[in-house]
Amino acid sequence: MNRRQFLGAGGAIALLGAAPRPLRAAVPARIVAAGGAMTEIVFALGEGKRLVAVDTTSLYPWKAVEPLPKIGYLRQLAAEGILSMHPDLILADVDAGPQDVLDQLGHMGARLAHFTAEHTAESVAPKIGFVGAAIDRKAEAEALATVFKADLARIDAEVAKIATHPSAVFLIGVGTTGLRGAGTGTAAADMIARAGASNAFGDVGGYKPASVEAMLAANPDFIIMMQQTVEEIGGIETVATLPVLAGLDAAKAKRIIAMDGNYLLSFGPRTAHAARDLAVALHPEAEIPALPPRAWTA
């Protein structure tokens, strides 16, 4: 994790700089969010009006975030663009970086709240509390986290009732030259497990290239891809006929699940609903009740 301090699922507010300093007492009026989940949480807490800029992974709620200035991609931030927005607070999610940019922001006196945790659904409730503390909405965050944990527990209980455990692979990259799948320790791996399936690419860690031969040997029951990737390729029918996938039983049967990447992998307030949707797709024979609609999932 480079030089990041690993803090577990609880996270912490960190001011990065030459020496730690206490957070300013004033409630931040101008917030920059780096990470789709950070943006979603701010809106879910009813404080979207305080956001003055977001990163390019912040896609929801679309109508509200689309007009906002963009500070670049989450993992490739630049200090100058962020500081040009004159933020009172910079909210940064787990993968925000590079680290030298975060350090630079701290050295330049920026108030930076950087959440650090493992890529799991269990990190969402602490992340909500983290944001609530940073923007002075602790009570609202506690209420939101309570509802989220109840939704997640409900899905866990429903999935636990299912006897079948199909294998699945999440492909983050599909091209003429090969495949790139999600191994252990990834957001995709956590969601596959939570939805009651086994990760066919679980013998490696992180996102790694996979040979066609290795994929044929694993022969997963389901292929999971980002909706954006599927659309770029030309739809599920086209994906199923790609030479690198055509030999798989999942491709032949078109057991290809396309889900919005932000919804599935950002670990924000909609994660319990995303886990339910993935579980439904992986277990078409099961009857998994829908979760109650929430204001932040509308």
What are its keywords?
298 residues; alpha/beta; four-stranded parallel sheet; 13 helices; 15% strand
Structure description:
This protein is an alpha/beta fold and 298 residues long. Helices cover 37% and strands 15% of the residues. The strands form 2 sheets. Strands 5, 6, 7, 8, 9 and 10 form a 6-stranded mixed beta sheet that branches. Strand 1, helix 1 and strand 2 form a beta-alpha-beta unit. The longest helix is centred in the middle third of the chain and has 23 residues. It is globular and about 60 Å long. The two termini are 34 Å apart.
End-to-end gap? 34 Å
- The number of distinct helices, counting runs of at least 4 residues, comes to 13
Query: What fraction of the residues are assigned to beta strands by DSSP?
Result: 5-15%
Number of beta-strand segments: 10
The chain-level structural class is: alpha/beta
Low-confidence stretches: 1-25
Q: Main beta sheet: strand number and arrangement?
A: 6 strands, mixed
Task: Estimate the helix proportion, in percent.
Answer: 25-40%
The radius of gyration computed from the alpha-carbon positions, rounded to a whole number of angstroms, is 20 Å
Quick rundown:
By secondary structure, this protein is α/β, with parallel strands linked by helices.
